Amino acid sequence: MPTATLKPMGVITVQLGEMVETGAGPKGARIVVDVLTVKVESDRVNATLATNDAADWLTMSEDGTLGVLDVRLTLKTDDGAIIYVEYGGRLDMTTGLIAAAPTFQTGDDRYKWLNRIQAVSAGHVNLETGVLIYNLYEVQVSAD
């Protein structure tokens, strides 16, 4: 039976910006949150935000206690590689705790190993300051 273990990958620090509420739609209340800065720090990848079009298209539960993440951003590594990142997850609005599942896409040969990784992250957001910090993990699946 296959099992999974988590291997630490690094830390991601995010500064969130303006939050625009669109109101309730067919999927629930939507809040679009600008992502102003991203810093990825690890022993294998160090990167920052490459473009100014990063955002979270957050959908809120009816009672406002659960946020469903839909995040997309593009990173530029310290050695010039471009990496597209997208992830979904869950935000507990009462505690600020987040569980998310990032994936990566890149054509840069130095970082193609990221294309095969399913990551998970455990994070916390301070909704007053807009600072979000994730601990990032690689999910390693084995056939035990």
Q: How many individual domains?
A: 1
Task: Pick out the low-confidence regions.
Answer: none
Quote the beta fraction.
over 45%
The count of helical stretches stands at 0
Distance between the termini: 6 Å
Rough outline? globular
Largest sheet data: 9 strands, antiparallel
Number-wise, the strands total 9
Kindly name the structural category: mainly beta
Helix/strand order, N-terminal first: EEEEEEEEE
CATH topology call: Porin
Brief account:
This protein has strands at residues 2-25, 28-41, 46-49, 55-60, 66-77, 82-92, 97-105, 119-126, 131-143. By secondary structure, it is mainly beta.
Task: Tell me about this structure.
With 144 residues, this protein is mostly beta strands. The chain has one domain (10-130): Beta Barrel (Porin), CATH 2.40.160.20. The chain is built from no helices and nine strands. It has strands spanning 2-25, 28-41, 46-49, 55-60, 66-77, 82-92, 97-105, 119-126, 131-143. Strands 1, 2, 3, 4, 5, 6, 7, 8 and 9 form a nine-stranded antiparallel sheet that branches. Strand 5 and strand 6 form a beta hairpin. The model has no long low-confidence stretch (mean pLDDT 95).
